[in-house]
Amino acid sequence: MKDRSELPTPRTEGEILSSSNLKAFTFSDLKNATKNFRPDSLLGEGGFGHVYKGWIDEHTLAPSRPGSGMVVAVKKLKPEGFQGHKEWLTEVDYLGQLHHKNLVKLIGYCSDGDSRLLVYEFMPKGSLENHLFRRGAAPLSWAIRLKVAIGAARGLSFLHDAENRVIYRDFKASNILLDSEFNAKLSDFGLAKAGPTGDKTHVSTQVMGTHGYAAPEYIATGRLSAKADVYSFGVVLLELLTGRRALDKSKPDIEQNLVDWAKPHLGDKRRLYRIMDTKLGGQYPKKGAHAIANIALQCICSDAKMRPRMSQVLEELEQLQDSKNGSASPQVDIRRASQTVAKSPLRVQPSPRRSLGAASHCQDIVPHKCTRREVILQESM
Question: Which superkingdom is the protein from (predicted)?
């Protein structure tokens, strides 16, 4: 695995493609691998294009007969789609060099004429979005939800924990893919951005992302930091807790934005149960739910500086899992969190373990008003 601080920053397409160890497929290869992109091979679609199921030889990576060899997912981009050539190249650049068990593996790419395709490892359980929101989907247990949150946190922490950090910029349920054991992997790096260097706190960039998940300060100013990813992670934690989408226009106006609707309940032990996903059937540890609510509350803090780092979030989630999936959580006291104001997201406990601190200063956030920048964001699908 390469040290992220040593990653080159190629300036041309040729340098990016030549610097990766990815397989360069021809369009004909991928036509054969996907049965000519037939409808029965279609796995999903979105603003970027379509994703098809395909088969390649495990050793040579040559296309193989359907049902034999290694299963792969082939993303075929629309030439005029939201994720255009620039995003395709960004994904090749990052996933061609960064390798981690919680990042989806990019096997190869195709740049044949006007065709732009990407070939990934196949994730048999699909996206977290489908498991949480698709009609008829089997409900996820509390243990699986916590496992998914930890896997996704590991992926984000890996990206952030480097001298030359990477900001994911589009963390959402549909970009969290699950393998056969419900291990979470981050996918779709088309909007990823190199983080600030030196003593800089942010990078300025065009606002892109998805409504409901994007951090308010990023929408308002275009200033991007790793704390924007932390905010998005907090929104996904809320989706795992409530079973509701980040933005749901089918709900009454006051309930459409998940953050605004859920926030008043997160710091109140007596009110939290009102927003818990009914699909859990009450089968969740109450202390564990309170702990996750506290973590989410800090992640969605309106003051980006007061949000914890992903490494802190990951440590807290792992401690929760160690305590029998949250059946006990001595490190997090939700009552104290609703009554005290911390000067830092990190509070040192008497025990040797660290814990995220109080979050009451983040509870009463006035919903931000839309700006012209916000129209660039995708609608949540």
Answer: Eukaryota
Numbered residues of the known binding site for ATP = 76
Q: Is the pLDDT of residue 204 over 90?
A: no
**Which residues, listed in sequence order, are joined to residue 49 by a DSSP beta bridge?**
46, 77
Is the Cβ–Cβ distance between 313 and 231 less than 8 Å? no
* Active-site option among 29, 93, 170, 188: 170
Write phi, then psi, for 103 (nearest 5 degrees): -115, 135
| Contact indicator for 359, 320 with CB cutoff of 8 Å | no
Q: Give the Å distances, CA to CA, from 171 to 62, 64, 187, 209, 325.
A: 32, 33, 9, 8, 24
213-227 mean pLDDT:
94
Domains recognised in the chain with CATH numbers: 4-121 (3.30.200.20), 128-376 (1.10.510.10)
Q: What percentage of the chain reaches a pLDDT higher than 70?
A: 78
- Assess whether 170 carries a catalytic annotation: yes
